[in-house]
Design a protein that fits this description.
By secondary structure, this protein is α+β, with helices and mostly antiparallel strands. It is 24% helix and 32% strand. The protein has an eight-stranded mixed sheet with strand order 1-2-3-4-5-6-8-7, sandwiched between helices. Helix 1 packs across helix 2 and helix 3 crosses helix 4.
């Protein structure tokens, strides 16, 4: 399988813009709240650390069978970045699987931005050569479970590193 490339995705209110290193300056502010790291671990990165991370993400993985797909979320009404969505597409015995994740900065939460962005991402992934979409969510992270539900994922009884696996076959869209 050829590596997938992130493409621009538009939803009703949002533009999912393929990640560029230059997004680090604005995103460092968006992701600055340490509360965002309660479930994902780590701490907020400064601009330079985020630039370094974004360079690595834009360069892509060393394994040509894996695709790293990363977007920033631009809220059109406010003309600003509000968060990120991402998918890592990897081979499996049943076909390529996309593992997705999202984060929206604290000032933009509870506006449906994460749900809309995740739904847009999942809809796009369903047009790609991917057989299944999965997310791993901390059972205490109710907001993220709501985002997964809005994106059409359902919880399974599988666990990984203390997180519940949610899934959606792509044929369901």
């Amino acid at each position: 399988m050829e590596p997938l490339r992130a493409e621009a995705i538009a939803t009703a209110r949002l533009d999912l813009v393929p990640l560029l290193v230059e997004h680090a300056d604005e995103m460092a502010t968006v992701l600055a709240d340490s509360a965002l790291h309660r479930f994902i671990g780590g701490a907020p990165a400064d601009r330079e650390a985020l630039r370094t991370r974004y360079r690595r993400l834009v360069a892509g993985p060393a394994d040509p069978a894996v695709s790293w797909l990363n977007w920033v979320i631009r809220w059109r009404a406010a003309a600003c970045l509000t968060g990120t969505v991402q998918a890592t597409v990897s081979p499996s015995a049943t076909g390529p699987i996309a593992e997705v994740a999202w984060v929206v900065g604290t000032p933009w939460q509870q506006r449906g931005i994460a749900s809309e962005a995740a739904h847009g991402l999942v809809a796009w992934l369903c047009t790609q050569p991917v057989t299944e979409i999965v997310a791993h969510i901390d059972p205490q992270h109710h907001a993220s479970a709501g985002v997964a539900t809005a994106a059409g994922l359902t919880p399974t009884d599988e666990w990984q590193d203390g997180e519940l696996r949610w899934r959606r076959p792509t044929a369901e869209l």
